[in-house]
From TrEMBL:
Its cofactor is Zn(2+). This is Peptidase M14 domain-containing protein. InterPro entries: Cytosolic_carboxypeptidase, Pepdidase_M14_N, Peptidase_M14. The lineage of its organism: Bacteria, Pseudomonadati, Pseudomonadota, Alphaproteobacteria, Sphingomonadales. Residues 115-373 form the Peptidase M14 domain. Belongs to the peptidase M14 family. It holds the Pfam family Pepdidase_M14_N. The active site is at E334.
């Protein structure tokens, strides 16, 4: 029985280049496949079969040409034997090749850039949340592949809070965050927030990229977070239908949830540089970050992106566009593919469970601030 590699499933991405070995010792050379009609790639997710009793070295030989090769140093691959627990395993990056080893005590194992949140998992989340009291579900539109853009509304307050994530499908931690946020929003803990605000949630902005195993783009090879100035039905129907609903409701507070390849911490980015920037507007964004850092050990404000210079904000990005368009307190949340180094976990790193908990923490802080937004 030979070793077999397979990624022909929901969210899978890898290509077998060469398999060599004999007896117990094998080497498997692999390549990550580019997003369709795009040069972006970094997300991988595959299954290896026939592992029992074998020592296998997996080598992703095109890692050095990926979208963010500076993210590989210090990164550790996630591995699972049951598709439930995803543990970090020792990983090396040298000469543009990402390498990790596995000794098979069972026949099967799965390996991924981060714990996957597949479209089947998304369907289960949607079914579970839509059945809860006080929740309205709608299909705002469809993707280029014909998949639904699922939307939830909960609450009745005057303030309009929008939560949306997974514009970049390879950032799977974002939908675990959404799962935690939605469970909290449909619990008694959210009562005060939902009296003051109506909360709108799009848990997955990019179903096509998710199912196809993309890192950053939709079915047309388009980065959705560069479409918010002028979305179109041909390139970015996902953004088009969501922005139309935002125009209908207005936006008081917005959070766009992402993952970052390189920085080993959770952090936020704001809307510095928009044409209408005022210090009073920006102070609400900074207040959110400071409150969240005080509220959760899994958040910090020291590490993050450089701020845009005055007048230089990119209005094709959602956080900038919503702050400019609606005067919203608009926040990009970034979670790590590595770990939150100020509060590390040697076994799991940054994980699905911690992503869920951060979703709850973020909304607890929004609830504290909502009257002043």
């Amino acid at each position: 029985m030979t070793l077999q590699i397979n990624a022909a499933f929901d969210g899978g991405n890898i290509r077998l280049v060469e398999l060599r070995g004999e007896g117990d010792d094998w080497t498997c050379d692999l390549e990550i496949v580019r997003d369709h009609q795009s040069d972006f790639y970094q997300w991988f997710y595959f299954r290896a079969a026939g592992l029992r009793g074998r020592r296998v070295t997996f080598r992703i030989v095109n890692a050095g040409q990926s979208a963010y090769p500076f993210g590989w140093p210090g990164y550790r691959t996630r591995a699972s034997t049951d598709l439930a627990a995803w543990r970090m395993i020792d990983t090396r990056y040298d000469g543009g090749v990402l390498t990790f080893d596995w000794t098979g005590t069972g026949d099967l194992a799965w390996f991924a850039y981060f714990a996957p949140f597949t479209m089947e998992m998304h369907a289960q989340l949607v079914a579970r949340i839509a059945a809860r009291p006080g929740v309205t579900h709608r299909e705002l539109g469809q993707t280029l592949d014909g998949q639904a853009i699922d939307y939830f509304r909960v609450g009745s307050g005057a303030k309009q809070v929008w939560l949306y994530g997974r514009q970049h499908p390879g950032e799977s931690m974002t939908e675990f965050w959404m799962e935690g946020a939605l469970d909290w929003l449909t619990s008694d803990a959210a009562t005060s927030l939902l009296a003051a605000a109506t909360v709108h949630v799009v848990p997955n902005m990019n179903p096509d990229g998710t199912r196809r195993g993309h890192l950053r783009t939709n079915a047309a090879g388009v980065n959705l977070n560069r479409e918010w100035h002028a979305p179109s039905a041909e390139r970015s129907p996902e953004v088009l239908c969501v922005l139309r609903e935002m125009d209908r409701t207005g936006v008081t507070f917005a959070m766009d949830v992402h993952g970052d390849e390189a920085i080993p911490a959770n952090f936020i980015a704001g809307f510095e540089g928009i044409p209408s920037w005022t210090d009073a507007h920006g102070a609400k964004f900074y207040d959110f970050g400071q409150r969240l850092a005080a509220h959760s050990r899994d958040f910090q404000t020291e590490l993050g992106y450089e701020r845009s210079a005055p007048g230089k904000a990119n209005l094709s990005m959602s956080t900038n566009q919503l702050a400019e368009r609606f005067g919203a307190v608009s926040v990009t949340l970034e979670m790590p593919f590595k770990d939150h180094d100020p509060n590390p976990d040697a076994e799991f790193g940054w994980s699905p469970e911690r992503s869920r908990r951060l979703g709850v923490s973020c909304l607890e802080v929004v609830a504290e601030m909502i009257d002043g937004l």
